[in-house]
C-alpha cells in the first residue's frame, strides 16, 4: 500500500465512523426517550418526545394555544410536549403546581426576559422563590389595588381622551381597528400611572416612538428563546447578525431599554431640582422606597429602572388583549351586549355611575364582571404553558406520579375551557355561566393572571383599566363589528395578541344623570 493511501485510511475511517456514531447515538436516544424515559408513557407528538425542536417550532408558529387544545382533545389531560416536559390540562393541578407552598420552582424558560443589566432578577424572571418573595414585598404596596385606586383619576383622563377620539371617528363614520385603539389606551394609561403623562398614542392616533412595533418584533424573538434549551440561546442571540428579523428584535430591545431608562433619568433631574413634588405616580413611589428603605432593602436606582422597564415590556399588551377580547366577544354576542348595555343604563338612571365611572361603581355591575371574566376565560392574555420543576422527591399531579426535576406546566388557554368545570358550552362566550351554582369552583380554575405567589404583579392595574373603560365605551357608543362574518386574528407569542377587530362606532343618545 502506498504511503498516500496509508495516510488516507485513518481519514476515511473517521469520515465513516463519525456519522455511524451519530446515527447509533441518535437511535439509542430515540429508543430511550420513547421506551425507557420516565415520561415515555405519556402521549404526544412523536417528535416532541425526542427533541425540544418540536416545541420551539410550535412556539415560533404563534399558535401554541390552539395546538395545545387540539393535542389535549386528542391525547387527554397529560401531553408530552418535549422530552422532559408535559403540559397538563387538569384544573385541579393549578393549586398543586402553582400554590405558594407547592415547592415547585420556575424553570429556565423565563430567563430570556431578564435584563442583563439588572442587579436582581425582576419578579417575573426570578427563579429563587425566597428571593422573589423578599424583593416583591418591597414594591407590593405600589401595585396594590388601594394604591391604583388613588391614581384612578389618571386612568379617567385616558378614558376621556379615548371617548373624545371615538366621538370624532363616529361623527366621520370611520371604521376603526378596536385592537389598535385599545392598545394605545393601555399604553397611555401606563404612561400616566408610572410617569405622570401619557405617551401620546391616543392624542396622535399612532404608535408613539414605535414602541408597539418594537414590542411586536421583540416578544416573538424572546418567546422562541424561552422555548429553546439554555445552551442554544447564545446561538439565537448571535443569529441576529444573519437574520434581519432577529437583528431588528435586538435593536427593539435596546429601544425599549433606552426609553424606560430615559423616563427614570428625567425624574432624577426633577428630584435634583426640587420639582418632583407634583409627580404623584408609581415611579415617584419607587423613588420614595429607594430614599426611605433603599439601604436597608438594597433597592437602588437600578431597581427603579427595572420597574420602569417592566412597565414598558408587559404593561400594555396583556391588558389590551384582555379588553379587546371582551369587546370582541360582546360584539359577536348580541344578547350579551344588549344585557350589559341595559345594566349600565339602569345604573345610570339610578344615579349609581359618575361621569367618570369609578372602580367601586364598576365592580357593582354584576353582569359587567361576568363579561370581563368570560372574555378573559376564552382569551387569556398569556396563552402558553408556564413550566415549573417538580420538587425534590417527586409529586402526584392529575393522578400521575412525576419524578423530581420534570418540567410540568398549565396553559390558561387550555384549562379555562375545561368542560368538566365550565360546562358543555365552555368554548362559547356565555357570561351567564358566572351566575351558576359552581361559580366559585370556576373562579378557582381561572389562571389568566397566573397563580400563587407568582400571580401577575400588574393584575390590579389591568383590572382597573378594563372595569372603567368597557362600561364607559358602552355607555357612550353603539359598537358593532364592521363585518360580523369576519373573525379576528390572533398571534400568540407569550402575549396572545388580537388584531383586525374592525369596528363601526355610533354615538348613543346620552342618558347620563349620575353625580359629577
TrEMBL record:
InterPro entries: Cyt_P450, Cyt_P450_CS, Cyt_P450_E_grp-I, Cyt_P450_sf, Cytochrome_P450_monoxygenase. Keywords: Heme, Iron, Membrane, Metal-binding, Monooxygenase, Oxidoreductase, Transmembrane, Transmembrane helix. Its cofactor is heme. Heme binds at residue 456. It comes from the Eukaryota. The chain crosses the membrane at residues 12-32. GO terms for molecular function: heme binding; iron ion binding; monooxygenase activity; oxidoreductase activity, acting on paired donors, with incorporation or reduction of molecular oxygen. SUPFAM superfamilies: Cytochrome P450 (SSF48264). Pfam families: p450 (PF00067). Belongs to the cytochrome P450 family. This is Cytochrome P450. It comes from Cochliobolus sativus.
